[in-house]
Amino acid sequence: MSTLTLPALKEGEEFVCDSGCGSTTPEQYDFEYSREEFPDGRVISKTEKAWRSACCHACVLVYSNLADSFTAIEDYA
Ligand SMILES: [Zn+2]
Q1: Model pTM?
Q2: How far is the CA of 62 from the centre of ligand 1 (A)?
C-alpha cells in the first residue's frame, strides 16, 4: 500500500477546500476507482490513495497568493 507525500508549498501558497471553506488540511483516503460485484456476492474493489479536504471531503486546491491562481493538489508539483 503506497502513501502520498504532501506537496511542500512555496511561500504565499496554502491548501484550500474546493467547496469554498477557505484554508484547509489535506487528508489521505482510499479512492475507489474500480468496483466489480459478482452474482455470488464477491466484490473486487480497487482503490488508490488520494487527497481530500479534512473539512468536507472535497477536492483540495493549492492557492497561490502571489499568482492569485488555484492548482489541483494532484497537478501540483
Ligand atoms: Zn471544506
Answers
A1: 0.82
A2: 13
| Distance in Å from the first CA to the final CA of the chain | 22
Tell me the three state secondary structure of residue 73. coil
CA of 42 to the centre of ligand 1 (A): 35
- Whether 18 and 53 have beta carbons less than 8 Å apart is answered as yes
Task: Tell me the torsion sign for CA atoms 6, 8, 12, 13.
Answer: negative
66-75: pLDDT as tens digits: 999 999 999 9
Q: Do the strands 60-64 and 26-37 form a parallel or antiparallel pair, or are they unpaired?
A: unpaired
